[in-house]
Design brief:
The longest helix has 22 residues, at about 295-315. This protein is α/β, with parallel strands linked by helices. It has helices spanning about 1-20, 40-55, 70-80, 90-100, 110, 135-145, 160-175, 185-195, 205-210, 260-275, 275-285, 295-315; strands at about 30-35, 60-65, 85-90, 115-130, 150-155, 180, 200-205, 215-220, 245-255, 290. The protein has twelve helices and ten strands. Helix content is about 45%, strand content about 20%. Helix 2 (about 40-55) packs across helix 10. Keywords: Signal. This is Tripartite tricarboxylate transporter substrate binding protein. Belongs to the UPF0065 (bug) family.
């Protein structure tokens, strides 16, 4: 019996040693983007996937699974095997606002995921159809006050950061902008260009090509400073609307239980990619600021944002019902 126990223990030790020594990754990695193709999230995911593919020598496969303001794709990753081969392109709206907006969101941000690294901060931009008789945010607010309920704005969905920001704008400036949710930044932008919706609150990365081509007009960026990609577009504050500074972010998360050594390896690879000059130039040009922080730092921001947005959601009475 003693010899049998010794043999079993030795076999288990050998198996553990072999498992620990197995290289990661040794097959393609799936990166789930819970939003439609063409928006800032999809762009950042695709660019990061290119860099990580070069790092790992295995393909990073980007899959878009939009729906329910990002909840559907996010749930998929929460339920995935925690081995590092299924990752989430997380967005602050879905991870830190949706839990306060949806009564049955289907995931627990802190319990179901391990944050790997924030990859970028995203500058938000208010864009309008060219027929809107306002050249900046101040004039838009004046127009909204003159015609209560006549102006609407599109976003990537209920509970998204732009949605929460738009509702705060209603409260802060005493206006009544109507929210029109879409499944992603690209369809929302298409709706504004077609004059189905007057405005869209979205990321600079999503709006950039349409602004520079003159298909829509930018009213202002809700950030402390102008976006490098659109240096001629003023901030809300510069337009005479002070006290409204909001950005968004994207990051990579893995299912809870993913081994620390895998998380650390992924974080190191992400940091390497985001620090390359070519990556930085591409992101900055699109209105994104590369980050590449640690799992601990990313976790801290997520916890703080959950508390911050919960208070705003309650104040603005945002609900998915």
């Amino acid at each position: 019996m003693k010899n049998l126990k010794t043999a079993v223990a030795s076999a288990m030790l050998l198996f553990a040693t072999m498992a620990q020594g197995q290289a990661f990754p040794n097959k393609p990695i799936k990166l789930i983007v819970p939003y439609s193709p063409g928006g800032a999230a999809a762009l950042s995911a695709r660019w990061l996937a290119e860099g990580l593919t070069q790092q790992f020598k295995y393909t990073i496969v980007v899959e878009n699974h939009p729906g329910a303001a990002g909840n559907i794709g996010t749930r998929m990753v929460a339920a995935a095997k925690p081995d590092g081969y299924t990752l989430l392109l997380g967005y602050d709206g879905t991870l830190t606002i949706n839990p306060s907006v949806y009564p049955n969101v289907g995931f627990d941000t802190l319990k179901d995921f391990v944050p790997v690294s924030k990859i970028a901060d995203s500058t938000l931009l208010l864009v309008a159809n060219n027929n809107l008789p306002a050249k900046d945010v101040k004039e838009m607010i004046a127009l909204a006050k003159a015609k209560p309920g006549a102006l609407d704005y599109a976003t990537t969905g209920v509970g998204s950061t732009p949605h929460a920001a738009g509702e705060m704008m209603n409260i802060q400036y005493g206006i009544d902008l109507r929210h029109i949710p879409y499944a992603g930044g690209a369809p929302a932008m298409t709706a504004v260009m077609g004059d189905h919706v007057k405005m869209v609150y979205t990321a600079v990365a999503t709006a950039y090509p349409f602004v520079v081509s003159g298909k829509v007009k930018a009213l202002g960026v809700s950030a402390p400073k102008r976006a490098a990609a659109l240096p001629n577009v003023p901030t809300f504050s510069e337009s005479g609307v002070p006290g409204f500074d909001l950005n968004s972010w994207f990051g990579i998360l893995a299912p809870a239980g993913t081994p620390k050594q895998v998380v650390d390896q992924l974080q190191g690879a992400i940091k390497t990619v985001v620090e390359t000059p070519a990556y930085k130039e591409r992101y900055v040009a699109a209105g994104l600021e590369p980050v590449g922080n640690t799992s601990e730092q990313f976790t801290g921001q997520i916890k703080a944002d959950l508390t911050r947005w919960d208070a705003i959601v309650k104040k603005a009475r945002i609900s998915a019902n």
